[in-house]
Amino acid sequence: MVKIEIDEDACVGCGSCVEDCPNDVYEMDEAKNKTRVVKEEDCMACLSCHEICPAQAMEHQDIHVAKRLYIDRKVSNAINKII
Amino acid sequence: MEMELEEIRGTFKPELIPPECGGEIDDYEEALHVLMKFVGSMASALEQVSGRGANAIVYQAGKRMGHDAGKLMEKTDNLENAMQELSQILGKEFFFEMWKPSSQESFTIERSGETEVKLLFRDCVVRQTLRRTGLPQKGPLCYLLYGYMVGAVEEVMDIKGKLDIDHVGPNACLKTLTINWGGK
Ligand code: SF4
Ligand code: SF4
């Protein structure tokens, strides 16, 4: 099953992930003003929350990672050597 | 700038294609990138010229392909079997599975003569093409896959179907397939 970790130090409490997730996986913790994971079992690993989060505060573990054959391997290899 | 070109030489007889022109894996990669850019630009130009009509055109093209693919499959009136056959035809480049929220008992929901099933597309060449070209999802090119799915399901099950997008993401897209048992 998908495991979602939220980096609470990074989360700015904007609530975008709560709005965006179609399966209500997140909920706002009003007291802390941070998001929290409430329905991990309904996560389908679409990762649209990753695209919307301004703080890149979430991590999805053990998911199917979709193929991205459009990635230019030559460029990626060059970047990997630098970073 | 002069381009380095490795020439392939071989003997060519009619109907006999020399295996040397099959190319290396890097050639395929380059061709894939060109094709993705090409298809992406075509889809966006189509939308620019014909507006929402672009969706209908691409949908029809996909549906025709789906009907053709469906002819190769065994007929069934079992939705789960049809989905399995379809996933084999679509192959790993369009890897999808049936999906349901944890509160729902079965994958299918019956309502007034219709059956609904949610399909989660995990791998999709259309999505990759759109991202390669910087185009948004849910545009005309996505209709190619809807058409394909609907065409294939209609052919295999002899029913009328429709596919709606529920949600799109960079790693998976959720769609609802609705089947009308009234037939075509
Ligand atoms: S990956 Fe998709 S389903 Fe999972 S939490 Fe993010 S938006 Fe929700
Ligand atoms: S989108 Fe990111 S920053 Fe905003 S509430 Fe969600 S996790 Fe926090």
Query: Proportion of β residues of chain B?
Result: 15-25%
Chain pair sharing the greatest interface: A-B, 22 and 27 residues
Characterize the largest beta sheet of chain A: strand count, sense, and whether it forms a barrel.
Answer: 2 strands, antiparallel
Fourth-tier CATH superfamily name of chain B = Trafficking protein particle complex subunit 3
Query: Which residues of chain A form runs of ≥5 with pLDDT under 50?
Result: none
Question: What's the number of helices of chain B?
Answer: 5
Estimate the global geometry of chain A from the Cα principal axes: globular
Number of domains of chain B: 1
Give the ordered list of helices and strands of chain B: HHHEEEHHEE
Envelope shape of chain B: globular
Put simply, the count of helices of chain A is 3
Beta-strand level of the residues of chain A, as a percent range?
Answer: 15-25%
Q: Average pLDDT value of chain B?
A: 88
Spatial strand sequence of the major β-sheet of chain A: 1-4
Task: Record the SSE blueprint.
The complex is a heterodimer of chains A (83) and B (184).
Chain A: E1 3-6, H1 16-20, E2 26-29, E3 34-37, H2 48-52, E4 58-61, H3 73-82
Antiparallel strand pairs in A: 1-4, 2-3
Chain B: H1 25-50, H2 53-70, H3 79-90, E1 96-99, E2 108-111, E3 114-121, H4 125-133, H5 140-157, E4 160-168, E5 173-180
Antiparallel strand pairs in B: 1-3, 2-3, 3-5, 4-5
Helix pairs in contact in B: 1-4, 2-5, 3-5
The structure holds iron/sulfur cluster (2 copies).
